Amino acid sequence: MIIDSHVNLHAPQFDEDRDAVIARAREAGVGLMVEISDKLSTFEATHGLAMAHDDIWCTVGAHPHEAKDHADLTAAQLAELAGRPRVIGIGECGLDFHYDLSPRDVQAAVFRQHIEASRLTGLPLVVHTREADDVMAAILEEEQARASFKFLMHCYTSGPELAEKAAKLGAWFSVSGIATFRAAQEVRDIIAVMPADRIIVETDCPYLAPIPHRGRRNEPAYVGHVLDKLAEIRGWSRDEAEARTTDAFFALFDRIPRPEGA
User: How many whole angstroms separate alpha carbon 260 and alpha carbon 256?
Assistant: First the structure.
């Protein structure tokens, strides 16, 4: 089963042909997609997609870019929204010190509320991190010591030290189209040593289209290219990569019923 663990189908880039994009994903063999919440103002659209399609599930959360608009967000509010049908994760949340579109202390505070919501609901956390390795490691270590939670380091492109610390804390990792980029050897080197039973794949569409589609709008139909690159990096066959990532996906997102034969 091919699974795209991170899509942004509510994004305006899909407003003209969203149904066709979903149809192309199915034609390409994508059996399941996770539609990601990036801010609460668009959560209704995100949740609506999950409710309208049997093969789409969703998360609830606020991206660190949007943290400034969610400074008063509480874990209880997130947990309440997560109680809706077809919500299977908390996030996307975390830290982004590259763009600094929200103050760093606000990003950290909002991130901790997401962590608490993950504990309250038992749902896995979808973590975004960019150029914040030391602070991210400190928060994850501190919060896991307080009480455990499951988490995914989505579209991992940070350094090897954070990857090693996160892996020791039990993290899953998702691989994106960046793994196919010629200049991304450091990313491939980290993928090569990620825990074999905790790797999944994603497109992060409409962003980060893999080669041979780089420079175009990304879409879920292209996730097979990511799976092929993962297989190459790890020395797996395509069938083995598909089986391993499917097992890892359902171990992480354990509220999604696993289809018979998947």
Answer: 12
Q: Is the pLDDT of residue 229 over 90?
A: yes
> Helices 104-121 and 75-82 sit at what angle, rounded to 10 degrees?
50
Q: Who contacts 69 (Cβ-Cβ below 8 Å, separation ≥6)?
A: 39, 41, 62
In the predicted model, is pLDDT for residue 141 greater than 90? yes
Q: DSSP H helical segments within 15-154, as ranges?
A: 18-27, 43-52, 75-82, 104-121, 133-146
Q: What is the mean pLDDT of residues 77-101?
A: 98
How many residues are listed for the chain in this entry? 262
> Which SS3 state, helix, strand or coil, does residue 92 take?
strand
Maximum CA extent, the chain: 47
CA distances from 18 to 22, 44, 50, 145, 220 (A): 6, 16, 13, 42, 11
What's this model's pTM, rounded to 2 decimal places? 0.98
Helical H segments across 200-261, by residue range: 223-234, 238-252
DSSP 259: P
159 neighbors 172 (Cβ within 8 angstroms):
no
> What is d(CA 99, CA 77) in angstroms, rounded to the nearest whole number?
27
Q: In 10 A of CB 236, how many CB atoms?
A: 17
What are φ and ψ of residue 258, in 5° steps? -80, 120
Q: How many Å apart are CA 73 and CA 65, to the nearest integer?
A: 14
pLDDT reading at 232 higher than 90: yes
For 2, counting Cβ atoms within 10 Å of its Cβ (0-12 exposed, 13-18 middle, 19+ buried), the class is: buried
